[in-house]
Specification:
Structural class of chain B: mainly alpha
Oligomer: heterodimer
Number of domains of chain B: 1
Radius of gyration of chain A: 18 Å
Structural class of chain A: alpha/beta
CATH superfamily of one domain in chain A: P-loop containing nucleotide triphosphate hydrolases
Distance between the termini of chain A: 33 Å
Strand order of the largest sheet of chain B: 1-2-3
Shape of chain A: globular
Radius of gyration of chain B: 30 Å
Number of helices of chain B: 19
Largest sheet of chain B: 3 strands, antiparallel
Helix content of chain A: 25-40%
CATH class of one domain in chain A: Alpha Beta
Strand content of chain B: under 5%
Strand content of chain A: 25-35%
Shape of chain B: elongated
CATH topology of one domain in chain A: Rossmann fold
Number of strands of chain A: 10
Number of helices of chain A: 8
Order of helices and strands of chain A: EEEHEEHEHHHEHEHEEH
Helix content of chain B: over 70%
CATH architecture of one domain in chain A: 3-Layer(aba) Sandwich
Distance between the termini of chain B: 22 Å
Order of helices and strands of chain B: HHHEHEEHHHHHHHHHHHHHHH
């Protein structure tokens, strides 16, 4: 394990029945880094995410977050991370405000209403929608609510599952700006996505995943975003 | 910490139910139905208790108020005995609803429910009447399923389960929260029942017995709560958990109790009413006609009596020979009737015992056995009522026969049909009717009833073990 790594996959292998879902993954994600795991459908992105969240167990090797093994110290790991699911799955019968209060409560995080209002303002969720049932929210509004929840968790590590899927371009820009701001403030961000363009815009590093194996890696140099064309070609299996 | 998170999850589940009109309607409907059944049944039982007490008193008064009569006419005049409902029959009417509570006692016959509806007597299932126990044992689990089948699977389907677990909520905390919520919902159905138990505890029933009765029902409700929550956690889709739970409900509450009755009647078959009546009649005919002193069946009796008193003719006997024959005949008839009745009761009990063994396969059968035994409305209690009624019948009929033997002149008796005047002379004084004893049937003492239910408590305990195991599996296998 890398000494400064916040997230570390060390020969991580996950098998379910006879199928190998993840095969000997090795990578480290440092503090303040935006790390994107890029892959197509069935590549193993969600399995990787679930393994780091402790929702699936490693068959061999390890998945560690802040030095804690997600398979054995699941509760500790879950307390220190915030997770943003792909289709933001909050409760439709509750308002955005009620959803946040509920999830903070089960996570054991005490926040005042003022803290929650501040987080909702930070993610730019319109104030008149805070007390409306989530079933009336657009996908972008749900996404913002979930991000506000993640912010309120004060978690040093954020796991994002297809964060920009279904968002309109303006919402994607807003989201990318927020992710960059969080990373600049020291948060470590691990996202899984199949959105090459979005990943190149925001990630410091992109790692390609195919059939449960790592097949390539791209790194941002200084402030220049990663070359979309190169990543796209590698993702599609073409040579430039 | 575990409880704090579980409470939060429980409160959220309730908020969901209250905001979802379907769940709130089911909850309301269940509570109203239970309450309505209890109130209706309580009024009915209260009314029946007063009516039976009044009728019992009236029947005794009417018997004793009869004028001077021939004692054998009083034997056929007969008498009614009534069984007052037990306090807990407000909740559990048990076999009372189909065995009846009144018996007409008369000479030469055992008029009782024991020769009626014999094949149903071992049945622990009754689906026709909306009694509180039927609601609690059969319908309440259905309501619990309707409310709770999606409590965990809904979270999985909506994707909120992943988010919940990723917040550091443990599987045990999540299931405990869901369990608490469903237990509180089932308490909505249980509460009217417990209130009724509380009322019963102040109506002359033993407090410890009522407490045990209430706890058994609470455990039964908890069993269903655990089963519903565990299935909801074990199956990926709400539709799958609903289907499985309905199959479990059908098996436990409908099919297995019915199967138990069918297996019991097949393993321990009993005679039908007609067949039994014919056999009794045949046997009774062989005993001779007690109204005819010249029947050959009483030849030896006559000889023995003449020899005993050293006389040549029954006219010279110091006792009324007709009365002696009636007394002798009644005794022998009673022995035959009791033999058939005891056989019948034995068969019914055998059937009931077989059917109750199905409590190892269905908790509904186990709790129904506990319920009827503790409430004093079981088959055993009914049999005791029949035996006590028969003892009273034989006592008063033989008492009248004794009056016939000792207080009515034989010649006047034999001459009773000669004229109206002769008939008026062949009577005894009405004061003799005071021999009728007061009848008051009491169910077994609470300690006896509790001890009789021991096996069924074991069955319930067995089901507690099974559901705890199921819950552990659900906790282990709960995955988003």
């Amino acid at each position: 394990m890398h000494t400064n790594s916040v997230i570390c996959a060390d020969a991580l292998t996950v098998r379910v029945d006879d199928r190998t879902l993840l095969d000997n993954l090795n990578f480290n994600v440092g503090k303040g880094e935006v790390f994107a795991l890029l892959g197509g459908n069935g590549a193993g992105k969600s399995t990787t995410l679930k393994t780091f969240l402790g929702l699936m167990k490693a068959s061999s090797g390890s998945a560690t977050v802040l030095g804690k093994n997600a398979s054995t110290n699941t509760n500790d790991v879950q307390k220190s991370v915030a997770y943003l699911p792909e289709s933001v799955t909050l409760y439709g019968h509750l308002s955005g405000l009620e959803n946040i209060r509920y999830f903070l409560s089960v996570a054991g995080v005490d926040k005042t209403d003022e803290d929650i209002f501040a987080a909702l303002r930070k993610v730019a969720l319109q104030e008149n929608s805070w007390k409306k049932a989530l079933s009336n929210y657009s996908k972008g509004m749900r996404q913002k609510t979930a991000i506000a929840l993640a912010l309120l968790r004060n978690a040093p590590v954020l796991f994002l599952d297809e964060p920009t899927s279904g968002l309109d371009p303006a919402a994607i820009d807003e989201f990318n700006a927020l992710v960059s701001e969080l990373a600049a403030n020291g948060a470590t961000i691990f996202m899984v996505t199949h959105d090459v363009y979005g990943a190149c815009q925001v990630a410091h590093r992109i790692v390609l995943l195919s059939d449960g194996k790592l097949t390539g890696s791209f790194e941002r140099v200084a402030d220049t975003p990663i070359d979309t064309e190169a990543v796209h070609a590698a993702f599609a299996g073409r040579t430039l | 910490m575990i409880l704090r998170v579980a409470n939060t999850i429980c409160a959220e589940q309730w908020r969901y139910w209250l905001r979802t009109k379907v769940a709130a309607t089911v909850l309301m409907l269940g509570a109203v139905l239970t309450l309505a059944a209890l109130v209706v049944n309580a009024f009915h039982i209260e009314e029946a208790a007063h009516a039976r007490e009044h009728l019992q008193h009236k029947a005794e008064e009417r018997f004793k108020a009869q004028p001077d009569k021939h004692p054998h006419r009083m034997v056929h005049y007969g008498h009614y005995v009534f069984r007052a409902p037990t306090p807990l029959s407000v909740i559990e009417p048990g076999v009372d609803t189909y065995t009846g509570n009144a018996i007409f006692l008369e000479g030469h016959r055992q008029n009782s429910a024991m020769f009626a509806e014999q094949r149903q007597s071992a049945g622990l299932t009754r689906f026709s009447s909306l009694t509180p126990s039927f609601l609690a044992l059969v319908l309440a689990p259905l309501f619990i399923i309707l409310i709770g089948y999606g409590s965990v699977s809904r979270e999985r389907e909506a994707g909120t389960l992943t988010l919940l677990l990723s917040q550091g909520t443990s599987r045990s905390q999540l299931l405990l929260g869901k369990l608490l919520a469903l237990a509180a919902a089932s308490a909505v159905f249980l509460m009217p029942l417990l209130l009724a138990c509380f009322y019963v505890a102040f109506s002359g029933e033993s407090a410890s017995l009522v407490a045990l009765f209430s706890v058994s029902y609470a455990v039964y409700f908890l069993l269903w709560t655990v089963v519903v929550t565990a299935c909801s956690a074990l199956f990926e889709k709400s539709s799958a958990s609903f289907t499985i739970l309905i199959v479990i409900w059908m098996s436990a509450c409908v099919l297995l109790p019915r199967l138990g009755s069918s297996v019991a009647t097949n393993l321990a078959p009993s005679m039908g009413k007609l067949e039994a009546d014919f056999k009794v009649e045949e046997k009774l005919r062989s005993l001779g006609d007690g109204h005819d002193v010249n029947d050959p069946a009483f030849k030896k009796l006559k000889q023995d009596l003449l020899a005993k008193y050293n006389v040549d003719s029954v006219d010279d006997l110091p006792v009324n020979f007709r009365g002696v024959v009636a007394q002798y005949s009644e005794q022998r008839q009673a022995e035959v009737l009791s033999e058939f009745a005891e056989n019948r009761m034995q068969q019914e009990l055998e059937q009931a015992h077989i059917a109750r063994q199905f409590g190892w396969l269905s908790p509904t059968v186990a709790i129904r056995s506990i319920s009827t035994v503790l409430a004093g409305t079981s088959l055993e209690t009914h049999h005791r009522f029949l035996r006590e009624a028969e003892a009273l019948r034989l006592e008063f009929v033989q008492g009248l026969n004794k009056v016939h033997v000792e207080k009515l002149d034989y010649k006047l008796d034999m001459n009773r049909n000669a004229s109206e005047e002769a008939a008026d002379k062949a009577v005894v004084d009405a004061s003799n009717w005071a021999l009728l004893a007061e009848f008051k049937f009491e169910p077994e003492k609470s300690a006896v009833r509790i001890s009789n239910a021991n096996l069924y408590f074991l069955q319930l305990l067995f089901w507690v073990g099974i559901t705890v195991l199921l819950l552990r599996i659900a906790v282990r296998r709960l995955n988003p």
